Amino acid sequence: MATVWRSFKFFELEVLKGPLSRMEMTSCCYGHKAIFVGDGEGFVYALNRGGTATTLEFSAYKGAVTHMKHIRSRNVLVTIGDDDALNTGIMRVWNLDAVSESAPPYREHRLFNAKHPPPSESIVLRTNYNTELMNSLKFRGRDGDAVNAIPATAFRTVVVDFDVSEDLQNAAVALVSDEIVVLRGDLEHDPTVKICRIRSGVARGAVAFVGFPGAKFTPRAAQGKQHLFGLGIGNPNANANSSSINSSTAVTHALYTVFADCVTVWQVTGAAEYKEHRCDPPFGAAPECCCLTDDGQLVVASATNDQIAVFGSEAVLSPSARTSASLPVFDPTLFGAVHFAEVEGHKRRILAHRSYVVVLTQSSTRSEKFTLQCYDILNGLRCLSRTQESSCTNAAWVIADAADILVVCQEAKHDEFVAQRVMRLVETELQARLEQLFQKECYDVAKRIVRRLHAADASQQMSIQKKYGDYLVSKGKYAEAIDQYIEAIGFLEPSYVIRIFVNGQHTAELTRYLEELHHTRHGNLANRSHTTLLLNCYIKLRDEARLSEFIHRDDIRFDAHNAIEVCRQAGYYDAAIYLAEKYAQPHDYVIIQLENLHNPKKALAFIRTLCVDDAEAILLEVGKDLAGMEPRVCTELLAELCIQWKGPARRLADPAHTHRSSPQDYGFRLQQQPTHHHVQQQQQSRPSHRSEAKDFMHVFVDSPVCLLYFLRAVVESGVLDGGGESQRVVYNTLLELYMTRELKQCIRHQVTPEGAEVYTVEPYERRLEQALTFIEAYAGSYDDYHALALAEQQEFEEGVLLLLQRLHLSSDIMQYYAKRLEEGATPAIRRAAREKLIETCRSRLNRDGTDNDNNSNNNNNNTIGGPGADHSRANIDSSRGKTDESTKELWLSLLSLLVRSPDTEWQDLVQVLQYIEEQDLLSPLSVVEILSTNPRLQLCTVREYALRVMRKDEQRTEAFHGLIDTRLKKLRELHGEIDALQTKATVFQAHKCFHCHAALDLPVVHFMCQHSFHQRCLNDITECNVCAPAHRRLAAEQREAEERHGDPKIFFERLGAAHDADGFSVVAEQFGKCIFAAPQLRKEATLFFGDPMVPGAVSAAGAYGGRSGPAISSEDEDDYDDMRRAAMADGEEVYDEDGELLRPEAIELW
Predict the structure, then answer these.
(1) CA 900, 906, 908: angle at the middle one, nearest 5?
(2) 739, 706, 687: which is closest to 637 by C-alpha?
(3) For a designed S-S bond to 1017, which of 209, 490, 578, 995 qualifies (C-beta 3.0 to 4.6 A apart)?
(4) pLDDT digit string (tens) for 241-271?
(5) Rounded to an integer, what distance in angstroms lies between the CA atom of residue 869 and that of residue 821?
(6) Distance of alpha carbon 319 from alpha carbon 72, whole angstroms
């Protein structure tokens, strides 16, 4: 059946100008970045791809270069040529990466020798496909000598075809004698490769082609050297008894040979064994009518008819298959014909260009007319326009590679070679080719073309799928269109397809598309809406079987929660339960049991099997409903969850993991933006085997009794001990439930289902007893003031009094007991109230004293002698002052109550006055004023108190006078010492150095403190080694004291903390520190002056020759100061390297 071809224009034709159009070629081939040309004089030229410039030129042979091939993987050029009539068929391998000034290095391999001479017959080397023109052409040579021109038919060769494998380990040369010379070894580096000759035992016609497809195979089991058809073919030197495959035969190459009557393939092993196999069907070809594609397939044009056949399986011959980790086993059936096509015309040349087959045919009526066409055999396309295919006249050379096609046409005049017309065909851009296919509605062809291109963009392929699908929809072929849309999943928006098929007439096709959309090979493309739509399609089709089959599949991916919701709404509860169990959706399972199946017991039993995270999330949401249906069981379950969960522990990873997103289970991760609250929860560490009770208190908002039992179980378990502020709400709530007078089973009066277990309400008196025990046992865990407010609200007097005592609220306790002193109460109660009042004030006084002692001890190290001593002391005085103020008010209140009470006994007043006097709580004047308010009070009650106060004041006055006399005496002594130093000479009588304790020798330095040193023993010439540390410490303390005295903030803090009687003493002390005096001026200690703030500390004298002098007088101070400043300004040194003074005149003034 004749092949129907559809014509397109996929190539652009370009005419090349340059040296290539003037060369006399005997062979040519394409390289990676060049065009290689051989001429009749043995020269090889390398031109750029445009043929405009020659990049390399060297002499390869003395005769013609008959054949050549470029190996791109190694940048090696393999040529065959003749040196003379005797030296023919010479193969040379040129290394183009090592080009020298003359010619690149080469390795030579001779095909013939004395044992194997060349064939006696030879053929004319073809230089033009038009035989008539070739017979008339003459080659002038490089010099253009027309006189000595050589006819084109003078070039002859014995080589029909040759090929070299890409790894340069194998080469095959077909001779005119139908013999094939095979070379094995490293052709580029090994000078002694193995050469053997093989002859087909199958073919009867002449050999036309040899070629290595490039693929490698694993050899089949050794079968000796017997040929498949019983003919012995191989190396006669090989061991015929070998039956095992050694390491050298681990890899097998394939060799195609084409004859005039058949195609065969040879299995070439490392042991130089060659096994020939026939390729079906019988198909012969003429020379140059065969080629190998880039995928390793063999294209053969029949010599007897118009058929073109493609041999070889692309699955094992393509470059992608060659990169496989394991080699395929050599199988002769893989090399048979796989495609056929019919191309009319007498074929002269067959080439492979990408996925095209380039065919050159010659007209049977006009020998100079040739037709060039590119065929896409798989898709039935003619890819050259009519103008392009008829542009070849007298075609001489046609070469092609993966980049472009080169056509050389020759023109002759007066039987001489004139010029060549060089044309290049370049394939157009992919988008331009696709547009042509779209115009003719060849969407299926466009899809196959793009799919075949490895470099094609996947989005472009999907765009073709979309256009093809739209075309089929326009033709009403919805079933075929949905197939195209299914192939475009991942690149085409599902909503686009859904809008086309969403009407009721195409539900079946839409169901197919949505099912494929949920398949796992497409990732997470299906969202919740798609799952809902698919399930609704099943429901609309009433196909429960397909629905069940869909949810039971393991190769699909969907949002399980959404599918469960759809099944619930449609009433398919069994399917929803199955999905919840299969995809680990515990929340949905519980919801179905509660809302749809009304089985709370089964839901609670299921929750017990979950981990802490899932149980916690579910009970937080539906715990309130469960508490209403099964109060007791739900409460016990929550108590178990918050004390020690018996089920699986909390998940370590993803602590904020919710119950509705489980990518490990069903492959969908719901994108949820974490809130600030969730982020805080994630940062907190949560127990692994329990939950927080405070999180579940809202569950019992309608069930106070259940909440009481729940919180009591959690608190008594001890898991909340040490919880701090975070657990305080639990203790506060439990205490409130203990004190609540009316505790109800249910606030909203909901009807509890029959058979449900409930708790009994405990009596109010029993709960009050538990409240008292709770207040004492869990002190510090609850909020004391909140508990006090609750007790007062519930009129729980015992609890109020206990809490007041715990909080040390003495004033409130006094108000409580003061009520008993009101008129109308019994004398016994009034007497007990007075005793309680005195005891309360006494306990408050003792507690304040203990607190003040602790504060003093804790701050002792920070306040005594430290830099911030006054500030720390002021803080202590401030806190103590606040405490004393409250204590004073308390005792004032007590004294006022006793004085106003009509039946107060004088012994009570005496006792209170004694405490006030001992602790100096109130001033005597305040006490007298309060006592004077009761006219019935007798003088004997306060007489002893007044006498004791006056005696204490007299003693204090005497102590102050004694302190003043002592300080005045010490001040007079200091003045006397200062006058003696200023008016009298000082005699130094020391004989030993106070540093090294050796006898003094010159130079000696004496200090006014009666310490003498060698000059070499001094740390500083201006300071005494013994007294300097103490002087520095005193100076630092004085500076710090001045800074503190000048800070008004500290002064006012001390003044505010002082008692009424002590305020004047604080002010007097501040005035006594000379706060209004002018600031003192200090001078830095130098060679001549010390620190003026330390009198007598650094006044130094130098003595030479046994002489000693007094300290420098104050009247010479200005002169010495000027001298010191001048010395420092000039940068002069005081001592030399030997320790001698550089300026002794400065010492003479002492």
Answers:
(1) 80
(2) 706
(3) 995
(4) 433 334 444 678 899 999 999 999 999 887 7
(5) 48
(6) 15
- Tens-digit pLDDT profile for residues 1084-1110: 433 333 443 333 333 333 333 333 333
Q: Please, which residues have CB within 8 angstroms of residue 381's CB and are 6 or more apart in sequence?
A: 5, 6, 7, 8, 10, 375, 445
Helix axes 507-517, 494-501, angle to 10 degrees: 160
Q: How far, in Å, CA of 281 to CA of 311, rounded?
A: 10
CB 424 within 8 A of CB 400: no
Cβ neighbours, 10 Å, residue 1020? 13
Find the distance separating the first CA and the last CA of the chain, reported in whole Å.
137
| Phi, psi (degrees; rounded to nearest 5) at 610 | -90, 165
Q: Is 855 helix (H, G, I), strand (E, B) or coil?
A: helix
Instruction: For residue 1078, name the pLDDT band (cuts at 50, 70, 90).
Output: low
3 state DSSP class of 29? strand
- Please, are residues 839 and 831 in contact by the beta-carbon 8 Å criterion? no
Give a three-class secondary structure readout of 363-420. CCCCCCEEEEEEEECCCCEECCCHHHHCCEECEEEEEECCCCEEEEEEEEECCEEEEE
Could you read off the pLDDT of 23-58 as tens digits, one per residue? 989 999 999 889 999 999 999 999 999 888 999 999
How far apart, in whole angstroms, are the C-alpha atoms of residue 956 and residue 978? 34
List Cβ neighbours of 370 (8 Å cut-off, separation of 6 or more).
129, 130, 348, 360, 361, 362, 363, 392, 393, 394, 395
Per the structure block, which two tokens stand in for 389? 């295919």
Residue at 395: amino acid letter = A
3-state secondary structure of 30: strand
pLDDT at 1126: 47
| Residue 981, CA atoms < 13 Å, CB-side half-sphere | 17
Q: φ, ψ for residue 509 (rounded to 5)?
A: -65, -40
The region of weakest confidence among 71-85, 901-915, 1112-1126 is: 1112-1126
Strand partners of residue 359: 350, 373
How many CB atoms lie under 10 A from the CB of residue 965? 9
Tokens of 368: 């100079």
What is the structure's pLDDT at 1051?
77
Placement of tokens 């053997």 in the chain:
196
pLDDT at 20 over 70: yes
Distance from C-alpha of 634 to C-alpha of 696, rounded to nearest angstrom: 11
328's CB contacts (< 8 A; 6+ apart) are 215, 217, 218, 316, 321, 334
Return all residues near 401 (Cβ < 8 A) that are at least 6 apart.
30, 353
CA distance 117 to 636: 106
User: 214: which 2 tokens?
Assistant: 């490039």
Q: What is the mean pLDDT of residues 884-913?
A: 70
Beta strand pairing call for 6-7 and 381-382: parallel
Q: Distance from CA of residue 664 to its chain's centroid?
A: 20
pTM of the model: 0.55
Q: What is the pLDDT, as a whole number, of residue 985?
A: 85
Average pLDDT (50-79) is 93
Strand blocks (E) in 19-61: 27-30, 34-38, 43-48, 54-59
Tokens of 923: 């001033």
- Rounded Cα–Cα distance for residues 169 and 281 (Å): 30
Q: What is the DSSP string of 662-683?
A: -HHHHS-----PPPHHHHHHHH
Range of 162-166, 228-232, 501-505, 1058-1062 with top mean pLDDT: 162-166
pLDDT tens by residue, 919-938: 777 777 777 777 777 777 76
Supply the pLDDT for residue 302.
93
H/E stretch holding 184 = strand 180-184
Q: Which residue has the tokens 């046609």?
A: 398
Distance CA 727, CA 722 (A): 9
pLDDT at 660 over 50: no
Is 858 a residue whose pLDDT tops 60? no
